[in-house]
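Recall that a protein's primary structure is simply its ordered list of amino acids. Everything else, from secondary elements to tertiary packing, is in principle encoded there. The following example makes that idea concrete.
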Amino acid sequence: MDPPTPCVPSDPAPSSSISSTLLAGLKVQDAEAYRRLVYLFGPVVYEWCRRCRLQASDAGDVAQEVFRSVTARVSGFERGTFRGWLWTITRNKIRDHFRVRRADAAAIGGTNARARFEQLADPAEDTVEEPPVSDTRRLLTRRVLEMIRGDFDERTWQAFWRMAVDGHASADIAADLRMSNDAVRQAKRRVLRRLQEELSALLGD
């Protein structure tokens, strides 16, 4: 019977972070970069819209407008955090949405209808601060994990997942994967460290 592996297999280091390759790709209008943008931040933008009390269908439409604006303006993005920049675009698109609704109400129902509509609180004006970073981090975590999985050896990933996500004991994982207890703990630390690095870069922590 072979002894358990004393250390975690060496995983190839990624050539660059998700955030750097994402921005570089968007600036040259790369279709794959756009797909990754929507995959990562689609749920984030949608939740921001819903927080501003947009209906589900309207939130989806506004999110599409947000990402179109991002691709059109990303070449000028240089300072600040991407999350903050994305929130500013989203907030402006939400405000545009409510301005259009007001105009439509006036056109359909006349002055009285517009007056009634304007008595309602404008969600876009109520929500002027960036949503909590913790909420954005929660939405991004699972998707970032899916994107970095291919950068790790399969046993490293299984050890991390079973210990950090499934809550299994390191001794049980070590026995199943033929690794040492220390190797299992190292695997968890390595993946978590990479995850935190990627989230910090994307969120501007």
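The chain has two domains: 17-131, 132-205. The chain has a mean pLDDT of 84.
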